[in-house]
Amino acid sequence: MFLGALGTALLIAFHTRIPDATGLGLLLDNAAPWLGLVVPLLLLVALASRSRTSLAVLLVPALTWVLIFGPAIVPLSWTAPAAAAHTLTVSSQNIKAGTGAAAQSARELAANGSDIVALQELDAGSVQRVTDALGAAYPHHFVVGTVGVWSKYPLEGSRSLDLGLGWKRALSTRVATGQGEVSLYVIHAASARPNDHVDRDVMLEQLAAVVRADPHKNVMAVGDFNATSTDRAFAEMSTVLEEPNQDDGLFGFTWPRAPFAMMRLDHVLVRGLDVTSNTNVEAGLSDHLAVRATVNLPGD
After folding, report:
1. Phi then psi dihedrals of residue 211, to 5 deg
2. What angle do CA 263, 269, 273 make, to 5 degrees?
3. What CATH class is the domain 76-296?
4. What span is annotated as the signal peptide, if there is one (predicted)?
5. C-alpha dist (Å) from residue 115 to 91, 99, 191, 228
6. What is the pTM of this model?
7. What is d(CA 90, CA 115) in angstroms, rounded to the nearest whole number?
């Protein structure tokens, strides 16, 4: 019992230190929040043994989980600043290539009040369908390969980012809101599988370097990062941008959409912006939930 409790606490606290042999590190990192489920299992064992000592030992992994993950699951609604007179709402979704539902996703995200719609896994023909679906309300757009952004506001300095891969799955642009510029990044990181996540790791590392060098005060990055916030490869991103909590608390898992989400692979990250809302929404036919965040514009 003692060893089980101690081992669980150590895994929760130090999962990123476990060597990534045969993909073990990747699996542990992304499953880290679920390690807390070991605690109730150990509780059943402790109750069966009727040992007060065992019950006391359970406090170690339980408190470790609360200390590590507790701050991330506090509802944003408890501390979020009030919405200013001018706000910017950004939505992002991996629409899943082959569903034919890119335009549906775009329309539903626009209907939710998005000023900017960012999509990943765009396939042949979907760019024009999305542009037609959003119409004159979103007159500005920029697309790089399978990643695109549609905006009510002008986009300036738009450029593609290859992030070390030799092909482009990311972009950067500046959103000219009239209340100040917001530097926006949209990314679809390479896939991550046990023993096959080097390309993803390189993309996240280089994106972090690009964002760190960005001179703009107000920065936002959205997309499918193919990594959870507990993934060791995501750590560098966390040093340059912050992820706001969810409006209603908990982890905001986005994938898979059915039967229930188990990981948050899709993120909204910010710097220099006050986030008034951050939540997941259903859109289209994708296996990913969309993410949506509202920020106060810098001019307010």
Report:
1. -65, -40
2. 145
3. alpha beta
4. none
5. 8, 24, 28, 26
6. 0.94
7. 6
